[in-house]
Amino acid sequence: MSRPGAAPVPVPRLRSFVVSLLSALGLPEQHAQDTATALIDADLAGRSTHGVRLLPPYAARLRDGAIATAPRLRVLSRTGAVSVLDGGNGLGQVVAAWAVRHSVEVARELGAAVTTVRRSNHLGALGSFTRAAAEQGMVCFLVQNTRANMAPAGGRQAAVGNNPFSFAVPARGFPVVLDLSCSAVARSNIDLAAERGEPIPEGWALDPDGHPTTDPRLGLLGAVLPFAGHKGSGLAVVMGALAGALSGAAFGAAVPPLSDYSRERDLGHFLLVVDVAALGDPEELIGRVDGYVGEIGGSAPAPGVDRVRVPGEAADVRRRALLAEGIVVPAGLAAALRALADELGVPAGALD
Amino acid sequence: MSRPGAAPVPVPRLRSFVVSLLSALGLPEQHAQDTATALIDADLAGRSTHGVRLLPPYAARLRDGAIATAPRLRVLSRTGAVSVLDGGNGLGQVVAAWAVRHSVEVARELGAAVTTVRRSNHLGALGSFTRAAAEQGMVCFLVQNTRANMAPAGGRQAAVGNNPFSFAVPARGFPVVLDLSCSAVARSNIDLAAERGEPIPEGWALDPDGHPTTDPRLGLLGAVLPFAGHKGSGLAVVMGALAGALSGAAFGAAVPPLSDYSRERDLGHFLLVVDVAALGDPEELIGRVDGYVGEIGGSAPAPGVDRVRVPGEAADVRRRALLAEGIVVPAGLAAALRALADELGVPAGALD
What we know:
The structure is a homodimer. Chain A has helices spanning 11-24, 29-44, 55-63, 92-110, 126-134, 187-196, 216-221, 230-243, 282-297, 313-325, 331-344, and strands at residues 74-79, 82-86, 112-120, 138-144, 165-169, 176-180, 205-206, 223-224, 267-275. In chain A, α1 (11-24) packs across α2 and α4 (92-110) runs parallel beside α5 (126-134). The first copy, chain A, is α+β, with helices and mostly antiparallel strands. The model of chain A has no long low-confidence stretch (mean pLDDT 94). In chain A, the strands form two sheets. In chain A, strands 1-2-3-9-4-5-6 form a seven-stranded mixed sheet. Chain A is 40% helix and 14% strand. The first copy, chain A, folds into two domains: 11-183 and 226-282 and 315-351, Malate/L-lactate/L-sulpholactate dehydrogenase, NADPH binding domain (Ribosomal Protein S8, Chain: A, domain 1, 2-Layer Sandwich), CATH 3.30.1370.60; 184-225, Wheat Germ Agglutinin (Isolectin 2), domain 1 (2-Layer Sandwich), CATH 3.30.60. Chains A and B meet through β3, β6, α8, β9 and α9 of A and β4, β7, α8, β10 and α9 of B.
């Protein structure tokens, strides 16, 4: 999100502004806070496609009723460590933050929690939620299903979601946080190339006829491709089974495209939270994780690489820097946010 | 395992022979049964590198005491849904079968079980164990850590294990079973190329100096490479944290190589089992999984592909065929098994 000339906005200031916008859109206080936290955390982690850039399209969906502003969040069932939740068609960030809080409580009681969620929406950067759990001493695994947008291995048609997932493991310095989708690249990279009018490398997508393409617009109409062939494809199938078929949410072709505002999307999540304290002495175990990632991070780098980074490290470095320096909001986004703030009667001084 | 001329051995006959061999080596009845089941299942699934071919090297390790023939299997702690197990340095197949049984019991009680295991050994094909759980109506996720044999993304030195993992999800026809290691190919493929004196493709391994190599012998001395760069590398880091650092087992460089018989290997496992019945009506949910995989399997295949296969499908087809036709034991392996049987006084008529 950097653009020469624009002044960085201090994070607390940007956060207050985002909370005010979301409150003005009708979100209850806690929901506005949770959404602001998730969006800004995505920017801090360098995942700006899932950051405050999402506010204008989210505002449009909240205002036309495609997403519920004050969703009824319900625990449909609780069987020991397993909970089935209904997100009431709220913003994915709201539903996921609630689901993580619920699961952390269950895990504190029973050592572990498995939670499925239906009637949710796109939740942005999954790593924000798993990291939050890891910072409370929890191992966390979170999956979100998506519309069938990817050709499975051996296929030529979008028939499986690229179903992103994230793992986080507590450590002393920063949590290990892995955040992947099962496609060769996140779909947002193809969106970005289409916006910029740039070609995409072969191996990212098929056109609507099932042929490899370097045209991002055709790729968006066709299917993205899995990473590592049958490995990424197989992971996508499993993640969709967990977050879609087994959660009671919509799955596959039944998930409406993002551009279809007429129907609820009914996305699903699958969540595992494990309290490290149930696995042994947490100090000792977290020390072991530190030793483990230290061994990897301290190993000999490849030519031209300064050091081997473990998952979550680059985002942590970036997060620390931006928390000190502020976040640069690009001019186009700032203009869109100002227009939205004007309509809602929210002061936009944070962006000046 | 096919070789022209050799007659296939009916599976029940081969199984009895393997149980007899293992019993003669000192394994208690249940342990011999579990190991035979796992080895033969690997052959049935087309993973012959983890099949009965392992009996001669396992016999060597059991006889010189490097692996315990009658391990003491202990539940070190149980905190709600979370168990910490000690495999007593038994065969990985013995320890894993026990850990799955334990976890299925906990999941029947509490909906889900998270189990870590230390003091185990190589457990062969992970899919055999996750599939067994899926056939009891359980979602199963199993990880095994390995010695640091892979260069992480950005690295040139073996510093992370290729830490295989498996997911299985119950379905009506056959369970969805994904069984992956985090390297571009399973290390056993490089072993096989070395045995055959064939070169390996670039992208599989680095030589001991950290340069790409096509020589399988140099690759085995150096490091294997992750699939899909930072994605496979990141998954390996996480899987090693779950199965190694958090289980209390050895991890990274502390895991002795397979060729070192002087020390216990102390491998670790991480296991998640979720009872589908805790997620909702199991008939309905399993029907949804069937619908989901049916949508994927029924999608348009790529040119030259007959149909899109979902994870576990190819192994299921093969398993059904071999259960009917029998397993062909290659001549070299049959000779090694006969020699072992002779030493142990076990009749080897099954191989005739």
